[in-house]
Specification:
The chain has 18 helices and five strands. The chain has a five-stranded parallel sheet, with helices on one face. The chain has three domains: 171 residues, P-loop containing nucleotide triphosphate hydrolases (Rossmann fold, 3-Layer(aba) Sandwich), CATH 3.40.50.300; 62 residues, Orthogonal Bundle (Helicase, Ruva Protein, domain 3); 113 residues, Zinc Finger, Delta Prime, domain 3 (Up-down Bundle). It is elongated and about 75 Å long. The protein is α/β, with parallel strands linked by helices and 376 residues long. Bound molecules: zinc ion. Zinc ion binds next to helix 4.
């Protein structure tokens, strides 16, 4: 059986197939149906949330030749739709600004602006990672944006919209894409697996959607890897191995020992975790997420896990915040530690050092005494 990568096979061919971003799609659909097209659009948002995907679908809407005006739903059959899909349309120029930052590249590109498109409604420029353009490139672009010929359409995408000059932004309709909620990613992954008749379990899907961190593309890439890993099917153990995740119960045990102020217990729990050959950075991330869940539950009583509920009841909310900060701080400094394991150990030791109820006083007093005796 030949296997086609899911991300490519299920690339959205119209707006209805795009996951999330309803507010952006609505704005684009309205500009088509009400005939209020702008000449420059800028799509901003983190990686993998659908910026260029939406821009490509929009390009098909604009140039679809099935009717004599732009269409909210492209036909996906005419030569324009077909050619834009495979990136061969003569009047659809896709540029990666990251590799063509120089002003000569930009001038060369903009030279063609004045020529009317042949066999197409619009000449469309899709400039990806537009914030990478040099200052002079932006100036050249701005000149065109100030008086664009009516047949020209600029679609720009960027992960760092704050680096795009205000003068350029003010000439564009700015569309901010959001990260996709985990539940939506889960639904999407499940629907594709159903279409592919691939068996899965809920936990695998939840793990992948969590690791995707709001990006459908990352979710699909992970899903593809997991399917390859599991020889054509999905199972939790393979997915965990692939993602380098560990059972949250190990982390919960560790947190319970920390909360109890039990140093030996915490060290044993940590030892169990390190025996699993996991990535220490991943452990820190799960630790942060556990304290986040505890903290949320303390305020909102929204967690269904019994262990999180128990921890939330037993931990002072201020100490929860402190532990959260300590873990976050350890993650931030993770890469300066000569040994990753030390970063994790130090994080746990710090949490133990900041125990409530005065436990922390003793070691500090001892330290002071030690100082006095050593200086004496
Ligand atoms: Zn078409």
């Amino acid at each position: 059986m030949s296997y086609q990568v899911l991300a490519r096979k299920y690339r959205p061919s119209s707006f209805s197939e795009v996951v999330g971003q309803e507010h952006v799609l609505k704005a684009l659909e309205n500009s088509i149906s009400q005939n209020k097209l702008h000449q420059a659009y800028i799509f901003s948002g983190t990686r993998g949330v659908g910026k260029t995907t939406i821009a490509r679908v929009f390009s098909k809407c604009l140039n679809c030749m099935q009717a004599d005006s732009p269409q909210v739903i492209p036909c996906n059959k005419c030569s324009a739709c077909e050619e834009i899909k495979i990136g061969r349309h003569m009047e659809f120029l896709e540029v990666d600004a990251a590799s063509r930052t120089g002003v000569d590249d930009m001038r060369e590109l903009l030279d063609s602006v004045q020529y009317k498109p042949a066999n197409a409604r619009f000449k469309i420029y899709l400039i990806d990672e537009v914030h990478m353009l040099s200052k002079s490139s932006f100036n050249a672009l701005l000149k065109t944006l100030e008086e664009p010929p009516p047949h020209v359409m600029f679609l720009m995408a960027t992960t760092e919209v704050e680096k795009v000059p205000k003068t350029v932004l003010s000439r564009c309709l700015q569309l901010n894409l959001k990260v996709i909620p985990e539940a939506k990613i889960q639904l999407h992954l499940k629907s594709l697996l159903d279409l592919e008749s691939i068996e899965y379990d809920e936990e695998s899907i939840a793990l992948i959607a969590d690791s995707a961190q709001g990006s459908v593309r990352d979710g699909l890439t992970l899903l593809d890897q997991a399917i390859a890993h599991g020889n054509g099917s999905l199972n939790t153990e393979d997915v965990k191995a692939l993602l380098g995740t560990i059972d949250q119960s190990y982390i919960i045990e560790l947190v319970e020992q920390v909360v109890a102020g039990n140093g030996d217990g915490a060290y044993n729990a940590l030892h169990k975790i390190t025996e699993l050959n996991v990535e220490y950075e991943q452990v820190l991330k799960i630790l942060i997420s556990v304290f986040h869940k505890i903290s949320l539950h303390q305020q909102l009583h929204n967690n269904e896990s019994e262990s999180i509920q128990r921890l939330a009841d037993n931990l002072d909310p201020q100490i929860t915040q402190l532990h959260y900060e300590i873990a976050l701080n350890s993650l931030g400094k993770f890469h300066v530690h000569p040994h990753p394991k030390q970063a994790l150990e130090l994080c746990i030791l710090r949490m133990l050092a900041f125990q409530p109820m005065g436990e922390a006083v003793t070691p500090r007093e001892e330290k002071k005494n030690l100082k006095i005796s050593s200086s004496a």
